[in-house]
């Protein structure tokens, strides 16, 4: 089904302001200017390229880049698509309440953000902060028997550390194959061509840590 044509997002002059107060032009500007950085941080945390996010959200790579750079104000339709791709509320991008970033983030076991692959054979539970002054991402991932990586699983330049808690995982990095069992770990640069697959007949549980390359 073709989505409705997006219209430019505008704030009505007569619309009630959040929290019962009137938004000044500087308030509006602050909200709008915060969308790009929030989007860039989310994309970096998941290690997604512009093209990968475009495929997930049905928003063009060029549009995503412009929003991140602050050269384009996204429409409501675009924000809805991006929010759905990241599984976060739209308010995440436009919340005007800028609480000071805390250097500590506690994630209770029952509050992990969980994502399931389209085929249902890979379940990823985030154990790293969803916001704040952090770049590293980590997850507890359950990989079904016979499941393997796809092109979408590849990450931009950075580092990855994979630790197998139970089961078996075959990882190929730079054309060299490593067979990991419970207790084994592999640390590698993600710009190297790499892939993985569960060659066993049962679910493999791994801790996957990623750190994207810092760009100046």
What does this structure look like?
The protein has 216 residues and is an alpha+beta fold. 25% of the residues lie in helices and 24% in strands. It is built from 5 helices and 9 strands. The strands form 2 sheets. A 6-stranded antiparallel β-sheet has the order 1-2-3-9-4-7, covered by helices on one side. It has a 3-stranded antiparallel β-sheet with strand order 6-5-8, with no helix packed on it. A hairpin with a 2-residue loop joins β5 and β6. α2 (50-57) packs across α3 (61-69). The longest helix has 22 residues, at 25-46. It is elongated, with a radius of gyration of 20 Å. The N and C termini lie far apart (41 Å).
Question: What is this structure, in a nutshell?
Answer:
It contains five helices and nine strands, in the order αααααβββββββββ. It has 216 residues and is α+β, with helices and mostly antiparallel strands.
Q: Give the spatial strand order of the biggest sheet.
A: 1-2-3-9-4-7
Q: Nearest-angstrom radius of gyration?
A: 20 Å
Q: Which series of helices and strands comes N to C?
A: HHHHHEEEEEEEEE
Low-confidence stretches: 1-20
First-residue to last-residue Cα separation: 41 Å
- The proportion of residues forming helix, as a percent range, comes to 25-40%
State the major sheet: 6 strands, antiparallel
Strand content: 15-25%
Approximate shape: elongated
- Structural class comes to alpha+beta
In total, the number of strands is 9
- Summed up, the helix count is 5
What brief labels describe this structure?
216 residues; alpha+beta; 6-stranded antiparallel sheet; 3-stranded antiparallel sheet; 5 helices; 25% helix; elongated; disordered N terminus
